[in-house]
Amino acid sequence: MAAAAAGPAPEAWPELELAERERRRELLLTGPGLEQRVREAGGRLPPRLFTLPLLHYLEVSGCGSLREPGPGLAQGLPQLHSLVLRRNALGPGLSPELGPLPALRVLDLSGNALEALPPGQGLGPAEPPGLPQLQSLNLSGNRLRELPADLPRCAPRLQTLNLTGNRLDSFPAALFRPGALPLLSELAAADNCLRELSPDVAHLTSLKTLDLSNNQLSEVPAELADCPKLKEVNFRGNKLTDRRLEKMVHGCQTKSILEYLRSGGRGGGRGKGRADGPEKEEARRRRRERRRRESGEGEEEEVGSTSRLLLRVLHVSENPTPLTVHVNAAVKDVRPFIVGAVVKGMDLQAGNALRRFLTSQTKLHEDICEKRTAATIATHDLRAVRGPLVYTARPPQDLKIVPLGRKEVKAKDLVRQLQLEAEEHRKQKKRQNVSGLHRYLHLLDGKESYPCLVDADGDVISFPPITNSEKTKIKKTTSDLFLEVTSATSLQTCKEIMDALVLKMAEINKYTLENKEDGSLSDPEADAVSGPPLGPSTSPSAEKDGSAPLVVEQVRVLDEDGHLRVVYPSKTDLGCAAPHVTVIR
């Protein structure tokens, strides 16, 4: 009997056998059969998983029987760059601790049952740092009552920390010590029980975004205004004793809030400066908003809304004509990762909506895409996209495209033209740096082939990281879009950037519908980029109450043999959306 029971064990994890045989660097374990197999393994991951040292990306999600990763992870996966263990049952701690993982950059433990991460049952050792390269840590949706005090020493290069939806009542003092987390740019701890924010938060010199909404804060320290790069704060849903500040956090921009704190407002008081009355502040706010609407600038703050944003995910099985992308092996050594999505219901025709959309894409390229070095976004008019699509790579002399605003050209000639333009631009402006597409030419240096996305007609519609095709150009009349994100870094990078893009589109669409901008105020620059409107049109999402959801259709990415590489959005994507976003699945 024992021998019979042990017989099928080698086939219990066919994904591992396939990953080992094909020397894969990415592995996704999910699906209905996973829970039973993990339960039979004692609530842990199978030891054989930790004999795949080539893995760069590992995701195990949605498994209610996974209580701990199991021993051997750190020793067996030394090259792991991204570890995603979200929506499982990990907790109350991690035994044994995860680290050391010297190459790990992304760690997602959201949606588990973690209560504490003490030494030996946490993320890794502090001396030497267990996660020395970690950039993004997501602990949202757990039951944490406190953070480990040694977190800054364990992950000294942390850039993004998401603690939303836990039970924290304070931050450890070590988090805000001078130089503790010099690169931390985003801190999210909404929906906790935080009672105070230390004035030492000013030591987070790289902080750009701070979300402490829906906590129990009564004061905001004036020192927060000393964070030199801070651009966005959210203190909604607290019980601030300063009534004026309470009003400002619900209606004013970050700049105004920081100016109020800086001038000595009772946000936690430092000094006794005198600020203008609320009427003057409100008048100034209205003037600034009017100027931004007229210029098309400041869209990031303009699109903020206290009402909820709705996103409806359309599963592949619900879609009679789903779009698919086939990945050719030729991109493996060039730019191997791609994620796609279809978004329907955008209103780009009203006012400056199109310009806001294009500007937001540019800002994402500058920030989260790290000037297109981490990833590149491309957006297309879905009506002009003929699938299925093929993501491949071609020699520069064989790749032809009709770039935006140009005639058909070979990639090698386009690159040469852009290089000449860049040199001429330098001479004219007498500068050492260049702007526009010219800044990204160096990303192609030394490449024997260039990546491209080809449609069913054989036309190249995208040449990342340089340009899209005129064939699928976004216009003011575009309401349905195909989105692509490509990267040489990781699949997880593509998915995170796609999340950010889709959420930004939802914000822009919500703002457009609620503000009823006059279409006659269209922006000439946006028209020049995207072409003039074809005639009167109304977006299908432009309902009277402005609450119609954007529809996000799943796009599958397959390998040459037709095996699924990734589908977006999956059940775990868009799972870390802001509190004001509702995702309907």
From TrEMBL:
SUPFAM superfamilies recorded: L domain-like
Species, as recorded: Vulpes vulpes (Red fox)
Coiled coil start-end: 408-435
Record has Repeat as a keyword: yes
Keyword Glycoprotein among UniProt keywords: no
Chain segments carrying region Disordered: 261-304, 516-548
Keywords: Coiled coil, Leucine-rich repeat, Repeat
Gene name per UniProt: LRRC47
Name this protein carries in UniProt: Leucine-rich repeat-containing protein 47
Ranges of residues in domain B3/B4 tRNA-binding: 334-510
Basic and acidic residues compositional bias, start-end: 273-284
Gene3D superfamilies listed in its UniProt record: Phenylalanyl-trna Synthetase, Chain B, domain 3, Ribonuclease Inhibitor
Compositional bias segments (type: Low complexity): 530-541
